[in-house]
Write a structure and sequence with these properties.
Blueprint lengths: L4 E7 L7 H12 L4 E5 L20 H12 L2 E5 L9 H10 L9 E6 L5 H13 L3 E2 L5 E2 L7 H13 L2 H16 L1
Parallel strand pairs: 1-2, 1-3, 3-4, 4-5, 4-6
Helix pairs in contact: 1-5
């Protein structure tokens, strides 16, 4: 019997009530049996990346963040677009991982909470591929809840759960991970 799959979700927005976080929470609630999703709460506490602080000088929180990524079977990223780009705090988190060995070839799923924001998707694709993450394109999920009221967001997310869109993307991601095991 295989152990359950562990997914680690990275939110590009630091706001607790962000649409990106709501989408990750909806995915966690829709995850199939044998799949757990932990949403990262460390990104906002990471110090500003400085190459002089790598190696033996790596801050404990960065080591903990990297360990969570290492231990995960796959990553889920949900990131809004800020000023036509990747939010600074999220880019900082990625910068801490660039020269480490936890991310190369790690499967990654992108979940996008907006009907727009294609610039951030292009930039994320470039950065994540440069970091040698394996983006599972067939698992891409777009649920346009950005800019909507909380009630409308909840209704759209419930519909995505009930019509199977959330679970279908997760299933495609899990299948891609299982194919590598």
């Amino acid at each position: 019997m295989q152990r359950p799959l562990s997914l680690y979700a990275l939110c590009g927005s630091l706001r607790q009530a962000s649409t990106s976080r709501r989408l990750l929470e909806a995915l966690r609630a829709a995850s199939p049996d044998g799949v757990s999703i932990e949403i990262c709460d460390l990104i906002g506490d990471l110090p500003i990346f400085n190459p002089d602080s790598e190696g033996e000088k790596t801050p404990a929180i960065v080591t903990a963040f990297a360990a969570k990524i290492r231990d995960a079977d796959g990553l889920i990223v949900s990131c809004p677009e800020y000023a036509h780009g990747i939010p600074g705090g999220f880019k900082n988190a990625l910068d801490w991982l660039v020269s480490r060995d936890e991310v190369p070839f790690k499967p990654l799923m992108v979940a996008h909470a907006s009907h727009r924001g294609d610039l951030v998707l292009e930039q994320l694709d470039e950065v994540l591929r440069t970091m040698s993450l394996r983006i599972v394109q067939e698992a891409f999920l777009r649920v346009p809840i950005a800019g909507k009221s909380e009630e409308t967001q909840a209704a759209i997310l419930m519909e995505a759960r009930e019509n199977g869109a959330l679970r279908a993307s997760l299933s495609r991601f899990v299948q891609a991970i299982a194919a590598d095991r």
